[in-house]
Design brief:
mainly beta; 5-stranded antiparallel beta sheet; 3-stranded antiparallel beta sheet; 8 strands; 4% helix
Length: 123
Amino acid sequence: MSAKPVSIAEKFALFSEAWQPKRIGRIDGYDVRIARLKGEFVWHSHADADEFFFVVEGVLRMHFRDRYEDVPAGSLIIVPKGTEHKPEALTPETKIMLVEKSETVNTGDGPASDRTVADPDYI
């Protein structure tokens, strides 16, 4: 990898499917990923990894078992490891950037499904 600017808009233009994160960079064993969200995801947690969500466009609602937090575009939320959560797009489509350990599976300890991505494509 070389030190060159990455256009987030250009990377989002390369895919349209929801809940299928794509790698756009790496930092010391962490991935920088982007994803399109539509509707609700599944309840899950990550026992050994915090998750960083930055909302690029739209509004993300992060559900926790005891509350929820709405995260508008230009804002971020960090979900501590071991915390059950369920992301939801409040707008027709929400675009997010994530920073998480490279081995992190998006559905965490939740059941595997067609939304499970263990090794995201690098775009």
